[in-house]
Structure to design on (371 residues):
């Protein structure tokens, strides 16, 4: 504060004291003591450049806190969720109304071992679910293929965004397709589903099973020559705007996708009606029913990370549901497939998934799912 301003304040204080004004008054946030105390210390020290006013700052509390993993793909999915919420609800367009909270999961922390070895369900969802239950976040955004067939207590998953392309992408610097890879070539993947189907059709190839990391990491390893090819979900590459890396897209006949591949699921607390209403506005019902059918199949098989399982439900040109399911031995020497057709309706599709699962359980026989 300029010296003339401080002198003015001191003069004001002297006048106030002379006319017996109340013992304390605030001027621009600067407290003037009563007439019994000396004031001009600020002038003697000459160290105060400005006198700061006391201003109340309002902290904006987020209406929705979105919990997500921190990988580029997970963040892209969280931002897609945020953008859809903002487009439908004007109150969420205010700055700070939606907050994205990054949570590191067990699957993110342990990268040195194959997923099958660190096993168990919920490797990429457990910590996010815990944050949701503990009210540290309001909704949780997951890749649906990472979500166990059971949900934690006090949570629901009422929303699936519209599904992206479910197919797998083949990426290689040396060949145009899996069929063109020379014998002995190594394909990197972290998926037993992909491994078993590759070896079933192309037994002369090698598969590096612990080919883990985010999309960018896997592409870097491919460029470094660690493997000659890899497979990635086309949906993820599209969401990352990285489809220029795709060499070839595998058909459903060549590589049946993982259960719920390409689908995003959003969970909230079961008692949180406000969040449930927000999520209801985002739900794509056709996707939700297809995912429910596939997950009923997976649940019936009680599939784990050690069991190669694939399943895909879609609507045909007549409006019916077509479901295809597959189980395999990890080495690809045995592959069992089945299919179903029925009405595109929730109860019917759940029954189709369960029935297909029971059939493959019976055909697999004792020990098949213990390999």
């Amino acid at each position: 504060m300029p010296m003339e301003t401080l002198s003015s304040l001191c003069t004001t204080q002297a006048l106030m004291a002379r006319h017996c004004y109340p013992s304390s008054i605030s001027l621009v946030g600067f407290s003037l003591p009563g007439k019994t105390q000396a004031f001009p210390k600020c002038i003697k020290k000459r160290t105060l450049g400005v006198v700061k006013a006391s201003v109340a700052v309002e902290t904006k509390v987020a209406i929705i806190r979105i919990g997500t993993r921190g990988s580029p793909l997970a963040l892209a999915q969280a931002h897609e969720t945020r953008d859809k919420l903002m487009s439908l609800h004007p109150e969420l367009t205010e700055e700070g109304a939606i907050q994205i909270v990054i949570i590191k999961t067990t699957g993110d922390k342990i990268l040195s071992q194959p997923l099958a070895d660190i096993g168990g369900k919920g490797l990429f969802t457990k910590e996010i679910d815990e944050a949701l239950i503990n009210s540290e976040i309001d909704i949780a955004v997951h890749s649906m293929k990472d979500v166990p067939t059971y949900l934690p207590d006090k949570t629901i998953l009422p929303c699936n965004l519209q599904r992206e392309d479910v197919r797998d992408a083949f990426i290689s610097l040396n060949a145009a397709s899996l069929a063109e890879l020379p014998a002995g070539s190594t394909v990197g993947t972290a998926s037993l589903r992909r491994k078993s189907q590759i070896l079933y059709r192309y037994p002369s190839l090698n598969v590096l099973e612990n080919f883990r990391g985010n999309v960018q990491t896997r592409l870097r390893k491919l460029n470094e020559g660690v493997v000659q090819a890899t497979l990635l979900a086309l949906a993820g590459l599209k969401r990352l705007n990285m489809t220029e890396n795709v060499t070839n897209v595998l058909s459903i006949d060549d590589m049946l996708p993982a259960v719920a591949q390409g689908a995003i699921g959003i969970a909230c607390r079961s008692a949180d009606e406000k969040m449930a209403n927000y999520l209801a506005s985002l739900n794509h019902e056709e996707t939700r029913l297809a995912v429910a059918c596939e997950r009923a199949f997976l649940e019936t098989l009680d599939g784990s990370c050690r069991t190669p399982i694939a399943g895909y439900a879609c609507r045909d040109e007549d409006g019916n549901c077509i479901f295809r399911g597959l189980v395999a031995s990890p080495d690809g020497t045995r592959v069992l497939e089945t299919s179903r057709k029925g009405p595109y309706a929730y109860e019917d599709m759940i029954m189709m998934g369960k029935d297909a699962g029971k059939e493959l359980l019976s055909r697999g026989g004792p020990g098949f799912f213990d390999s």
Notes: Residues 1-57 have pLDDT under 50 and may be disordered. The two ends are 79 Å apart (CA to CA). Residues 254 and 288 are 25 Å apart (CA to CA).
